[in-house]
């Protein structure tokens, strides 16, 4: 029983990650507005802005949610909070999938 519980938890975590994966094609359609600062190819056009190409998918989702919820308050939050506020959770996952698959 002691082995079964951690195994079950691990399997649930793994299956949750697989379900949470976004649709890169849908993300590409939403990414046009991101290109103004993060570049059409995910490489930042403005110094000090992060490159999104190849970034970890989960990190992008958590960062967007933090901007949307007002949990990030740095200099870029003034730009990112209104952008993130327009995104649904599915939009965030799709954008993250799109940028994560870039080289």
Q: What can you tell me about this protein's structure?
A:
The protein has 6 helices and no strands. The protein has 103 residues and is an all-alpha fold. The chain has a single domain, classed as Cytochrome Bc1 Complex, Chain D, domain 2. α2 crosses α6 (89-100), α4 (57-68) crosses α5 and α4 runs antiparallel to α6. Residues 6-19 have low confidence and may be disordered.
Give the CATH H-level superfamily.
Cytochrome c-like domain
Low confidence ranges: 6-19
The total of helices stands at 6
Q: Under the CATH scheme, which class?
A: Mainly Alpha
Query: What level of helicity do the residues show?
Result: 55-70%
Number of self-contained structural domains: 1
Structural class designation = mainly alpha
Q: How many strand elements?
A: 0
Overall average residue pLDDT:
86
Strand content: under 5%
Largest beta-sheet characterization: none
Quickly give the CATH architecture.
Orthogonal Bundle
Element string (H = helix, E = strand): HHHHHH
The Cα radius of gyration reads 16 Å
CATH topology: Cytochrome Bc1 Complex, Chain D, domain 2
Q: How would the global form be characterised?
A: globular
Distance between the termini: 44 Å
Pfam family, one: Cytochrom_C
Domain Cytochrome c: 22-103
Signal peptide: 1-20
Keywords: Electron transport, Heme, Iron, Metal-binding, Signal, Transport
